[in-house]
Amino acid sequence: xxxxxxxxxxxxxxxxxxxxxxxxxxxxxxxxxxxxxxxxxxxxxxxxxxxxxxxxxxxxxxxxxxxxxxxxxxxxxxxxxxxxxxxxxxxxxxxxxxxxxxxxxxxxxxxxxxxxxxxxxxxxxxxxxxxxxxxxxxxxxxxxxxxxxxxxxxxxxxxxxxxxxxxxxxxxxxxxxxxxxxxxxxxxxxxxxxxxxxxxxxxxxxxxxxxxxxxxxxxxxxxxxxxxxxxxxxxxxxxxxxxxxxxxxxxxxxxxxxxxxxxxxxxxxxxxxxxxxxxxxxxxxxxxxx
Length: 290
Hints:
Layout: H1 2-18, H2 23-30, H3 34-43, H4 48-58, H5 62-66, E1 71-73, H6 76-87, E2 92-96, H7 107-120, E3 124-125, E4 128-129, H8 130-151, E5 154-160, H9 161-170, H10 179-201, E6 207-212, E7 220-226, E8 229-235, E9 250-253, H11 256-271, H12 276-289
Helix pairs in contact: 1-3, 1-6, 2-3, 6-8, 7-8, 9-10, 9-12, 10-12
């Protein structure tokens, strides 16, 4: 019971920051103290009336806060905070994403990501300043990466060969970037692909990486095993080209049918992936062309 309540508190925190609300904002609107808000986020909410008020304030369903059924997420900030929470203390992760695995990227990539998102998100996103959202998101990503490196769960990663080729060709450059900017971003891409090649050749303990030469699903997904449960996460939000933190609906589900189908898909993708020296050589060949 305590763990379920704690998960409600985690969802409250994720949806609060995704809505751009401070603890003071929530406290004022609920007529409670800021300390009470932090306690609710740490220990959860066990009163249905208060749950309903919080759900209404955050613009989500009661079922979403309770974790009943599918959790739908329209905010990249909320999504990556929920992902960070789910990964915390997990035993195993399967990830199918684009040209890089964001939890193993270099500091140079992370800074390039921040700069590119700032260039892309100069206006508003869901009524909030884009640069503010980018700052919040990058803070979450850095905490997520630090926690991952400390916990070191077993991870299987399938990356897209087509996306790697595209990344090598353009880096994170926008279509209207100057030639100088494009060259600089291709150089960053080349160095990051060399980092990826080293991870493939000498993977950190518990990590295996494969390259798929067939098309990956258009929406990235992850399977996360924790506390004897499996969770399916699907997301249109991307931290690699083409970047997207602006639009889309991510989903989180523990439904047995979803877990079964995505587990089968994960197995099929991994069985078709190229690994070892062949995968490393392909990535290095693209790095040299960047």
